[in-house]
Amino acid sequence: MRFKLDDTQIGKCLRFSIEVTKKTKHYYQKRNQYARTEKLIFDMFIGKLAEVAVWSMMIDEDKECTSPSFKITDYGDSGDLKIIKENEIITLHIKCVRHDSPVKDSWLIETKEIKHLGENDYFALCKYYEPDEIEIMKVISSANINWQKPRNASLSSKSACYLSDLLLTPKTS
User: Fold this and answer.
1) Each residue's pLDDT tens digit, 154-167
2) CA dist., res. 129 & res. 5, Å (int)
3) Per-residue H/E/C for 134-161
4) What number of CA atoms fall less than 13 Å from residue 76's CA on the CB side?
5) Concatenated DSSP letters of 56-91
């Protein structure tokens, strides 16, 4: 499902990504010493665009969902969306990859974070085309993701999920 974002949403996401990068650049460069400021801004930008798109989809589907956060903390933004479903809180982690990424249809997570995922953690896996065009590829329970070592050996602290592994799992939300 593709979402078209308007200029106001795009501008808010861009301003946020610039501000969050100014305040957290040193933290993210510790995690990736080769990251340029422009890449950090762009990564934050497409992540926030995807968050807005997923939120829009949830609202369109009449889900009770928290709004995207534009609050900046010491380590970035608070990020995840929360959905109330049958009196339970579901955490929706948003992951976004560029459509022209050299590593096609894969999303990354810090390996150490996997052990903190529970039955109420879901992932919205998105693809970025343009600032006004985000595709939501799949919404899936973390329990249904087979995290693997990334194909790129330089990403040793991360785990990856690949769309090809998820195609047999039905879309859930």
Assistant:
1) 788 899 999 888 86
2) 12
3) EEEEEEEEHHHCCCECCCCCCCCCEEEE
4) 14
5) HHHHHTT-EEPPPP--EETTEE---EEEEETTEEEE
Give the pair of three-digit tokens for residue 160.
């990856």
Classify residue 172: in a domain, yes or no: no
In a domain, 171, yes or no: no
* Torsion on CA atoms 83, 18, 24, 152, rounded to nearest 10: 80
| The predicted structure's pLDDT at residue 10 | 93
Exposure string over 118-152, b if 16+ CB within 10 A, otherwise e = eebbbbbbbbbeebeebbbbbbbebebbebeebee
Amino acid sitting at position 140: I
Tokens 């009770």 found at: 64
Domain that includes residue 60, residue range: 2-166
Asked if residue 173 belongs to a domain, the reply is no
| Structure confidence by residue, pLDDT tens digits, 74-112 | 555 555 899 998 889 999 999 999 999 887 789 999 899
Number of domains composing the chain:
1
Amino acid (1-letter code) at residue 127: K
User: Which tokens hold the place of 173?
Assistant: 């939300």
